[in-house]
Specification:
Methyltransferase, Cobalt-precorrin-4 Transmethylase, Domain 2, Cobalt-precorrin-4 Transmethylase, domain 1, binds S-adenosylmethionine, alpha/beta, five-stranded parallel sheet
């Protein structure tokens, strides 16, 4: 029997109406849905009505994280070995503080085809629905996203060690890179610059702090650009390039 497939889907921050059309389509195309604790019961009920097999894999009082992840990995392999399409449904966006990255590593190791379907994260979904702007022309031009479980000393060093996402940085990337290097960030720090993200004409440029400015200039970027600075780019680089419609 051929291998099945996994959709790693973000369900949005809570309100089922914040599920994306693509997420809904992928859920409808799935045979089995493995879902986490933060998924709203109304969405679960709707999926059950569609006749989907639902398996809860969220936290339980009796298990630890490691055992739970092993169980999830076991299910992903077992079900896809049977040729089934599996939806792995996570709260918010699947790659924000949700261990989705660990599941991607497992799927790649086992050669299981997968697709990531982004979700509205609680980071912007919850705040926007409360009309709290994360940025403001006079009050805030940056947002720091941290896990409350992470070491405080570590996240306080975000410009030196963490991931930085720059919007509207096409014209100032040289200055940004220069200042980060001056602050002490390694000039070999990997950087991805994504033009027209999620669109058919998406392009991804991969470089380092020392050469990304030049690469962006040479690529004659015209569309909206999002720049990601940090080690996660290198770790997931091959995947980023494989998923790119065109890379430079
Ligand atoms: C394990 S993280 C997963 C985050 C998720 N992947 C995302 O993109 O929002 C779970 C945490 O996200 C926050 N969160 C998620 N949904 C929320 C909601 N509807 N309201 C408030 N906080 C929420 C809480 O801090 C919660 O403990």
């Amino acid at each position: 029997m051929g291998k099945g497939k996994v959709y790693l889907i973000g369900a949005g921050p809570g309100d089922p109406e914040l599920l994306t059309l693509k997420a809904l389509k992928s859920l409808k195309n799935s045979d089995v849905i493995l879902y986490d604790a933060l998924i709203d019961y109304r969405l679960i009920d709707e999926l059950k009505k569609l006749g989907k097999k639902m398996i809860y894999v969220g936290k339980r009082s009796w298990d630890d994280g490691k055992k739970r992840q092993e169980y999830i990995n076991y299910l992903l392999k077992e079900l896809t070995d049977q040729g089934l399409t599996v939806a792995r449904l996570k709260g918010g966006d699947p790659l924000i503080f949700g261990r989705g990255c660990i599941e991607i590593e497992f799927l790649e190791k086992e050669n299981i085809p997968y697709e990531v379907i982004p979700g509205v994260s609680s980071i912007n979904g919850v705040t926007s629905s409360c009309a709290i702007p994360l940025t403001h022309p006079e009050l805030s031009s940056s947002v720091l996203i941290v896990s409350g479980r992470a070491d405080v000393v570590k996240w306080c060093k975000t410009p030196l060690e963490g991931t930085i996402v720059v919007l509207m940085g096409k014209d100032t990337i040289d200055e940004i890179a220069r200042e980060l290097i001056k602050l002490g960030r390694d000039k070999k720090t990997p950087v991805a610059a994504i033009e027209n993200g999620t669109l058919p004409n998406q392009r991804i440029l991969i470089g380092t702090l020392s050469d990304i400015g030049e690469k962006i200039k040479r690529a004659n970027v015209k569309g909206p650009l999002l720049i990601v600075i940090g080690e996660v780019v290198e770790k997931f680089c091959k995947r980023v390039i494989a998923n790119a419609v065109r890379t430079e």
